[in-house]
Write a structure and sequence with these properties.
2 copies of one chain form a homodimer.
Chain A (H helix, E strand, L loop, with lengths): L2 E6 L7 H16 L3 E6 L5 H12 L5 H8 L1 H16 L4 E4 L6 E3 L8 E4 L2 H8 L3 E5 L2 E4 L4 E4 L4 H12 L4 E6 L20 E3 H9 L7 H10 L3 E5 L11 E4 L12 E5 L2 E10 L4 H11 L7 E5 L5 E9 L3 H10 L1 H4 L3 E5 L2 E7 L9 H11 L6 E5 L2 E7 L3 H11 L6
Parallel strand pairs in A: 1-2, 1-9, 2-6, 3-6, 9-11, 10-12
Antiparallel strand pairs in A: 4-5, 7-8, 11-12, 13-18, 14-16, 14-17, 15-16, 18-20, 19-20
Chain lengths: 411, 411
């Protein structure tokens, strides 16, 4: 019998009425003959409420206790959905992470799934029982303590459960009806994609598209889980298919560029007049790496005097102040003239597996942006994407320009 | 080293600010050299919110899912209190029922504790760690599913944990500062008792005093746990001792009557003109027992015609409609003339271990109530208490009359 994992996020389970609607979506698939495991998030707003209490209790709180508190949100929805399913005649039971168990590392607050025993869920299928799994949570086997996977972790729970029970498909229900060529709130001409390749989705999620947690796409890619992104707000009796995330071989008409992503969560740091000698990059980036600060785009420009260089790079906004302080502390070793920082920047990225076989894709973008008077502060490229860092004020203009340039606008 | 269990109810942990106050109470005892396990309820109002969602999802809900949902309330407070304790320098960790484990029966929604393994909590003591235990919840060992103990169950959790870790004392912190001779809202002259015997407390709790769950007193009595009822609203730096519940041998000056309890949760049923023949009581009470309806006071009066009898008894209000319907259904077998019911009644009880050695205690009450023009509808007595059923309108007058009669008024 075909096996299906369905995942519902916070807005989809925001009230008992919404949970009843989710139950109708699940019943449709059960009636169609699927063995179903459902993964649920906490009611929207609940996780923020719980996190608020934890932070009120202590700014420097024990992450293990944070996890015990915050995991309770998913516990509530899993029980409520099991009840709502039984109410419409669908046998169901809730599963907490420790009951399955979903074993994770002990990195509380952002634990990684290490092993899932799917056998008890599969046993339930033989009793015609839908498994309602509390997402986002697991247990550290050695200590027996509750762990959580970090924000958006329920997506990862769903895909990992799908791998553990050898599901034929994983449907991620959300408040949008699929993956778009870019954010439709910025580009009204954005189109919903019927299919997108795992690699593309991974880049899109990493580069700012918020529809799926990055880690969940990695897990889906490794285990080759066919994953749909679709809307829980569709009529349960007549839902739309959404967007399929799949192997690139399963995509017939490949576009050169599939989507445009953007991230405002970037900050730029420029070190002026750094001595242009071997070992300077290590002197700059070594201390940042030691402090777990991730550096993204890096460009180096020889300055006017030909003896020094200007070094520009980006970090996520949350690390900006810490990075600046650290560099000032190491100013003597690095030997730079001046530190300049900017947070009024945005990173715009174009993603597409077609870039592998087409040259000059990025060059067309540089010209199109220049024609609009948009100055590019930094550039990075990789096999299937390129990114440019520009002034935040030009976000919408730049995204629309690239979206049109690569033929992504709706007909 | 002396070992202590401290239990805090819902109003004591109603907010992060209140939880911080609880942490200060715990720190005081740790600083005094105690090894401490703390048992917490859910934040007040939370359990009702969770129960409301469950009932909204389904009137006839699966009790196992009810337990999974409702137990989340205590999970939240246990984590928050552990964090609040760490914040003021007291090492602490939270314990869920399944982590200890607190093993219970599978009577979901009102499970009974069957076994508690206290060893991991005691191990924590050797690391100077306060154990913060989520009250009210346990786990059914065979199924691995979460159970709850029923309303007020955290009191029972606390006393049972005290027995499991061989605690020297169990302090139940609540929103009142001890056990009173009667409800001070009705009798301003009510006095706080310094000590009350287990047997008396058991009767008081059973007969309407709401300060402790009945089951918790049973467990304390069986395991001879010295239990204090005291106020969490006292200054943590200067708390009052509250009321000690203890063996009767530990009470030096025994009163004949220790307290007056009352319960408005009673309904009266009278069957008129029942045939006065052997087997009639079985015909009446058999079907009620089969339906799990508990019958309390029973009186039988031969009626005017000398051939039939009137049978009066009480049930709790929640069972009233069900009991009436059941009796009407069995009307032919029982052969009664008419069924009369009343819910405008109250049961007033006087409790005291001194009654064992003093005759005529109840008789004095009957006269005193008659002098005030209060009609007695039914009477029951046992070794250390007697109860009278009267019109609800006379509740305050009757309680005040008996309170004065037995010398319980404040000096």
């Amino acid at each position: 019998m075909a096996r299906l994992v369905m995942k519902f996020g916070g807005t989809s389970v925001a009230s008992v009425e919404r949970i009843r609607n989710v139950a109708r979506h699940v019943k449709r698939e059960v009636d169609a003959g699927f063995e179903v495991a459902v993964v649920v998030s906490a009611m929207s707003g609940k996780t923020n409420e719980l996190v608020g209490w934890v932070e009120d209790a202590s700014k420097l709180h024990d992450k293990r206790e944070y996890d015990a508190v915050v995991a309770s949100g998913e516990q509530v929805t899993s029980g409520l959905l099991a009840i709502a399913l039984q109410e419409i005649g669908v046998p169901a039971r809730s599963w907490q992470g420790w009951q399955i168990p979903v074993e994770t590392s002990d990195a509380h607050g952002s634990a990684r799934i290490e092993n899932i025993d799917g056998s008890r869920i599969v046993e339930g299928f033989s009793r015609k029982e839908v498994a309602v799994v509390a997402g986002f949570q697991g247990v550290h086997a050695a200590s027996g303590r509750i762990t959580t996977l970090g924000r958006g972790g329920s997506d990862t729970s769903a895909v990992a459960i799908a791998a553990a029970i050898h599901a034929d498909r994983c449907d991620i229900y959300t408040d949008v009806d699929g993956v778009y060529t870019t954010d439709p709130r910025i580009v009204p001409k954005a189109r919903r994609l019927d299919r997108v390749a795992f690699e593309e989705m991974l880049e899109m999620a990493s580069l700012g598209a918020k529809v799926l947690q990055v880690r969940s796409v990695e897990v889906a890619m490794v285990h080759k889980i066919k994953t749909f992104v679709r809307s829980s707000f569709d009529d349960p009796a007549d839902p739309k298919p959404g967007t399929l995330i799949c192997d690139e071989e399963d995509i017939l008409e490949q576009q050169v560029v599939t989507g445009i992503a953007f991230s405002k969560d970037e900050a730029q740091i420029t070190l002026r007049r750094v001595a242009d000698k071997p070992g300077v990059a290590a002197a700059i980036f070594g201390p940042l790496a030691d402090a777990n600060i991730n550096v993204d785009m890096i460009i180096q420009v020889v300055s006017d005097d030909q003896k020094t260089t200007d070094m520009t790079f980006t970090v996520v906004t949350a690390d900006f102040e810490r990075a600046k302080a650290l560099l000032e502390k190491h100013k003597a070793e690095i030997a730079f003239g001046e530190l300049q920082g900017a947070t009024d920047v945005v990173k715009i990225s174009a993603i597409g597996i077609g870039m592998r076989s087409h040259a000059g894709i990025a060059a067309r973008a540089f010209k199109a942006l220049a024609d609009k008077g948009i100055n590019i502060r930094a550039i990075t490229t990789s096999e299937i994407k390129f990114s440019v860092l520009i002034d935040k004020d030009y976000t919408e203009l730049a995204v629309r320009t690239l979206h049109s340039l690569y033929g992504l606008d709706k007909a």
